[in-house]
Design brief:
Fructose-1,6-Bisphosphatase, Chain A, domain 1; seven-stranded mixed β-sheet; alpha+beta; about 35% helix; D-Maltodextrin-Binding Protein, domain 2; 7 helices; five-stranded mixed β-sheet; about 260 residues; single chain
Length: about 260
């Protein structure tokens, strides 16, 4: 039996909070890494936080499939409910001491996200929403911005860590040409939540993953925004656009030729 979205949100909230609090209690281990790559970091706390989130979910949902960033290659059982977890979104920020990182937990029913939590422990922010309720941050109602002109829009973006062709720079340049300002903050999930909160007007990234977007996309939609996968790639990878809805079509058309 599939529980209501509100019940799934409660499980997601507990899992995200426990994972985030585990990491927050280990800030003295910011440099406790397994591997440092040219454009990425594999951190021991990523795996630990994922294990904490898995355990929290399995307490009440032991038979559900769980897709985690750190174990994304593992085969998953076919279940109606699937959980999608990013234990630390913004690992490079975290490692360097920037507070712009978060723990993300989403519940999908037949691969459609119906509940999502994005918890930013160092910022003390808990973004959350389910398919039948409002988008909230620390209990405060969220709504996207009213910006309707692309040339007056603040747009967050990012660079694909596997991009060796310079495509990410071309996307950044194109956004800078059509928007008021581009910004790179380093956490896709938080970027999408800032759109939901009306702090920025859009977010686009050419190479993110399902665990980066699943939880935040529910929050965005329930805040009145619009999310769209512009391109699929193997391994849960995608090009993703999130906007306040008002500038969605013109922004999509501006970046589409570069996809």
């Amino acid at each position: 039996m599939i529980p209501p979205a509100s019940a799934l949100l409660e499980v997601a909230r507990q899992a995200a909070r426990r994972a985030g609090e585990h990491v927050l209690a280990q800030l003295d281990r910011r440099n406790d890494t397994d591997r440092i790559l040219r454009h990425d970091i594999k951190h021991k706390l990523d795996r630990e936080a994922q294990d904490v989130a898995f355990a929290a979910i399995r307490t009440t949902r032991p038979d559900d499939a769980i897709l985690g960033e750190e174990t994304a290659d593992a085969a998953l059982p076919a279940t109606d409910v699937r959980w999608v977890i990013d234990p630390i979104d913004g690992t490079i920020n975290f490692t360097h001491g920037l507070p712009f990182w978060c723990c993300c937990v989403a519940a999908q029913v037949r691969e459609e996200a119906v509940a999502g939590v994005v918890f930013a422990p160092e910022l003390s922010l808990m973004f959350e929403a389910h398919a039948d309720g409002p988008a909230l941050c620390n209990g405060r109602l969220l709504h996207v911005s009213e910006t309707s002109r692309l040339d007056q829009a603040l747009i967050h973006t990012g660079a694909d860590k596997n991009d060796g062709s310079g495509a990410s720079f071309r996307f950044f340049t194109r956004i800078a040409e059509v928007a008021q300002r581009p910004r790179i903050m380093g956490s896709a999930a938080l970027d999408i939540c800032w759109v939901a909160a009306g702090c920025t007007d859009a977010y686009f990234e050419p190479g993110v993953y399902l665990w980066d977007t699943a939880a935040a996309s529910v929050i965005l939609t329930r805040a009145g925004g619009r999310g769209e996968i512009l391109r699929h790639a193997p391994g849960y990878k995608m090009a993703f656009l999130a906007t306040n809805g008002r500038i969605h079509d013109p922004l999509r058309e501006a970046i589409r030729p570069l996809l």
